[in-house]
Amino acid sequence: MKQKNMLTWAISAIVYLGLVIGGYTVFASLGSNNDHTDTHAANNEEKESINEQAHNDNHTSQKSDGEDTGHSDHVDQLQSEVVTNVKYEEGIITIDVKDKEQNSPKLEISHEKIMHLIIVSADLEDYYHLHPEEKGNGVYTLKFDLPENSYKAFVDIKPKNLAYQVSPIELQVGKGHSEHEGNLLKVDTNLTKTINEKTVELNTTELGVNKAVTLSFDTKGITPESYLGALGHVVILDDKGDKFVHVHPTSEEKTVFETIFDKPGIYKVWGEFKFDGKVNSYPFVIEVK
Question: Which residues pair with 169 in a beta bridge?
Fold first, then answer.
């Protein structure tokens, strides 16, 4: 009887020990799974946070890239987010401005105008500075008679929060005219020009590459009238009519301008000044070495 009781006690102890070990194993397994679940959730949370931060950083970068630098000659390294098209039919110039989603971007006022349209003939002889008006849905128009010729048009605008590069747009008016090839410009030996009995002389600092160049226009004692919020404006094109630079005065009191040429070559400069209610465009051909 005593041996039977001992056997029963031993079996009970073994069963109890097995239950304890089994229970601990199950508890440890559950704890491990919970730890894994918590770690996985934490990892997912961390990834979401990183992705959100990356998105925000990228969004901020895109907006910063789209901000206007204030210098139309310094945005050519940006990928343009705005597309412009120019047409001429029956004396009407039509400009269509759209972003990459074919929406009409909001344009900011720049020197009193929402758009500056520069049109030059292919040989860079004829020059027009125009200001089309908004008609809605990204369309801008102007009634203007262009003589038959091949032209290049430059739509100088300031889209809000979008990168934009001013690029030449081919414009054909009439038939029988083709784009001029080769360098037809001859460097001016005399940088003094007279238009409508008003004389302007161009003086420059050393014309070099990748350094600040000062263009000073001597108006011979006559102060120009305010034109588009400034004493004058300067537009510069390379000899092929591809590189466009629109420069404004360095101050409100002087007809002095600064720019940077990024490559050597021959350039044509138009200085625009208003005298007696008329805007004269003075052309100069210079060489940057």
Answer: 153
**How much is the pLDDT for 12?**
53
| Cα–Cα distance for residue pair 171/121, rounded to 1 Å | 9
For residue 112 the two structure tokens come to 């009193």
Give me the DSSP letters along the chain: -HHHHHHHHHHHHHHHHHHHHHHHHHHHHHHHHHHHHHHHHHHHHHHHHHHHHHHHHHHHHHHHHHS--S-GGG-TTSPP-EEEEEEEETTEEEEEEEETTS----B--BTTBS-EEEEEETTS--EEEE--EEEETTEEEEE--PPSEEEEEEEE--BTTS------EEEEESSS-----S------S--EEEETTEEEEEEES---BSSEEEEEEE-TT-PPBPBTTBS-EEEEEETTS--EEEE-BSSSS--EEEEEBSS-EEEEEEEEEEETTEEEEEEEEEEE-
How much is the pLDDT for 252? 87
Cα–chain-centroid distance for residue 285?
Answer: 27
Please report the pLDDT score of residue 143 as a whole number.
98
| CA angle, residues 61, 67, 71, in degrees to nearest 5 | 135
pLDDT at 53: 32
Q: Quick check: pTM over 0.70?
A: yes
Amino acid in the structure at residue 46: E
List, for residues 105-136, the tens digit of each pLDDT value: 999 999 999 999 999 999 999 999 999 999 99
Task: Determine the average pLDDT of the residues in 227-239.
Answer: 96
Token pair, residue 84, equals 């412009």
Number of residues written out for the chain: 289
Write out the two tokens for 215: 């263009």
Could you tell me which residues come within 8 angstroms of residue 67 by beta carbon, excluding any fewer than 6 positions away?
Answer: 161
